[in-house]
Request: fold
Amino acid sequence: MESALRPVLLVGAAALLTLIVGWAVDRSLRTVDARHPETPLWDLLRRCRLPLQVVLCTAMLRGGYRTTHLADAHTAAIGQALTLVLIGASAWLVVRVAAAILDASYARYAAVSQNIPKIRRLRTQSTLIQRVFTAIVGVIAVASMLFTFPGMRTVGASMLASAGIIGIVAGVAAQSTLGNLFAGLQIAFGDMVRIGDTVVVDGEWGVVEEITLTFLSVRTWDERRITMPVSYFTSKPFENWSRGDARMTGSVFLHVDHAAPVDLMRKRLLEILEHAAEWDRRAWGLVVTDTTPTTIEVRALVTAKDAEDAFNLRCIVREHLIDWLRVEHPYALPRVNTAPAPGRPHQGEAREAAPIPDAEELGPGPGTH
Reply:
């Protein structure tokens, strides 16, 4: 009877103590977070409660399972299982703590900084650093689990002896993967492209939504996702409309008749911009940039704080200018002329006004006597 109660008491005591410690730690973090609301670290650390409880419970079971004398024949197997769980839970806890620290650093900087490009750069770097750290911790945890088996220790010595050959073979076999991995690190710390940047790749306009160590996802204006390897951005040219300064200058081209009132169009453009929330009031203008036998080309120039507002503002200006011309000055719209130009006489009238003189009126021609 006593031998049957020992494992129950051990598991119950471990679970009860784990719950008490987890509640105490969570309560302490809440108190500290209430006293220091400007630091989000304490609230983010509360996400570590579950892995912390798993580590504590597993550690207590790992330390006291031998005292139960239950299933002595399987003592080694139970200890091995608890060790594996303890290693995995510890890696989980380390990853959660590191993620909380990185997220807190980013949130605190983003709350006080007004430099949007630097905020996006820090977000990209923190995301990739977190992924690299998670991968490293995962590899170490798996290696630690494997080396808890006695047979793997012997294999490990021979693996270390042939590490050079294995590294060369792995490098050749995973050349593209390693290239993407180093390209991801180059993007993170080279400030080439960041999460939230507006880019044009392969003729597609979109916003960078996600950057990992191997691929990059771009969300287009019509909600499609373009996924491409990060090595693309280190080996091919692309347009980044948000690098350095997100402000943009947009242009709207209109083809109108030669009689179009350019001065009135310029005044109307300013009225449209005054009522547009997308205009950042930096600059504007309207000039004639080209002429053809049938039309003139007019360019309206506008500015906005970012690429999205610039696109919307161009659409607004184009729509309102065309509508204003259609209602107020319909003669200024391009058209195909089917009537003679004003002031030009008809062909019949021209003949009557200028009759062909006869030979006597013309006088003797050349070569006559």
About this structure: Confidence is low (pLDDT under 50) at residues 359-369. The first strand starts at residue 198 and ends at 201. The chain has three domains: 2-166, 184-240, 248-332. The longest helix spans residues 75-112.
